[in-house]
Design a protein that fits this description.
Length: 356
């Protein structure tokens, strides 16, 4: 039956084990992914399936639907075309966050509740600004709406189907700001924009990016699209094809939250990457752990061997910066080096730096 919107519910009354449910989910995914021919067009769906089990996930129909719903949105948050069971702290957290934020997010763009801030990326060896990253912030106008950072409202926007319109707005505003900075006399610093995999895989995404670049006048070599590594690799075939199209347009591609311990290195090597970004946690404890030192060295060497830049983010202290400087990695980002700033504040901060 159809619950509403693009959500449907299936009840399986004669289930003896999880394997029975998995078999049904796999068959459903296979059938739903088949192309649909409509008015001469071949259209494909990206189904997401959430599963709750009675009685371990709930003893009422409302609870079972709610938890299956949360599991489904967790699948969407990771790129669709999959299924997930309801149990697990992530699904429960997403469910608890989604309900108080979903309604306020509706219409938030029209109410102009979003703004961009800009955080510099440094060449830590030279102390110069290498580029800037555009970060979205949400300031709801309605009273009583819980304050939420991007780590919370972005997954909810993905779950609610709002990520496409929000992502387009962020990309347009960042490109327009880049042009405004040049008009104000700043050099054309490379600007990075975070992109949700759900937005990347939408039809005509590459066309949207190309149109945005034309309208804003930004040179493609100064626009960098940044995606989470785990999401790209989980849906490698679909994301890789889009990234290669974007690369042909002349812009830069960056992978965020890289972790070579849990990544397919062959797939990484096949992506058209310009930069790999790692969390500072990778450097934690390097003075005490030989294995960590070896992993860090291998990580940087792998990135450079691919011809990509390597950056470490999360530099929040002098000690963190010193740990980075001890290794062959020039690029760093974090509050200790430079915090996120509004557009005008960033321009003023940049002009006052003795070395740009």
């Amino acid at each position: 039956g159809r619950l509403g919107g693009d959500e449907f519910v299936t009840i399986l009354p004669n289930i003896r084990s999880k394997e029975d449910v998995i078999g049904v989910a796999l068959k459903a995914l296979e059938r739903l992914r088949q192309p649909y021919l409509i008015q001469g067009l071949s259209l494909e769906l990206s189904p997401s399936i959430g599963i709750s089990l009675y009685p371990e996930d709930g003893d009422s129909i409302d609870t079972l639907i709610e938890r299956a719903d949360a599991a489904m949105y967790a699948v969407k948050q990771n790129g669709c075309n999959d299924f997930r069971f309801a149990h697990g702290p992530y699904n429960q957290k997403l469910a608890s966050l989604r309900h108080p934020l979903e309604r306020p997010l509706q219409g938030s763009l029209e109410r102009q509740e979003f703004e961009l801030v800009y955080q510099p990326l440094f060449n830590t060896q030279l102390g110069t600004v290498k580029g800037v990253e555009a970060l979205v912030r949400w300031k709801p106008l309605a009273s009583g709406v819980p304050l939420a950072g991007p780590g919370i409202f972005i997954p909810v926007a993905e779950a609610c189907g709002l990520i496409g319109s929000l992502g387009r707005w962020v990309l347009q505003q960042a490109c327009l700001q880049h042009h405004a900075w040049q008009e104000a006399g700043l050099p054309p610093l490379p600007i990075a924009v975070n992109v949700s995999l759900l937005h990347l895989l939408q039809q005509r995404f590459a066309d949207e990016v190309e149109q945005t670049m034309l309208e804003s006048g930004i040179d493609p070599e100064f626009l960098e699209l940044e995606l989470k590594a785990s999401a790209v690799l989980k849906h490698f075939d679909q994301s890789s094809s889009v990234l290669h199209v974007l690369k042909q347009q002349g812009l830069r591609i960056s992978l965020d939250e890289c972790n070579l311990e849990h990544m397919n290195l062959r797939q990484i090597g096949e992506l058209p990457l310009d930069r790999m970004k790692f969390e500072h946690a990778m450097l934690a404890g390097l003075n005490h752990d030989k294995a960590s030192v070896a992993i860090a060295n291998a990580t940087f060497a792998f990135g450079y061997a691919l011809g990509t830049e390597v950056a470490v983010q999360g530099i929040e202290s002098k000690e963190a910066l010193q740990a980075l400087l001890a290794y062959d990695c020039e690029l760093g980002q974090g509050f200790y080096l430079g915090r996120p700033m509004g557009a005008d504040e960033f321009a003023q901060w940049y002009r006052q730096r003795p070395l740009h």
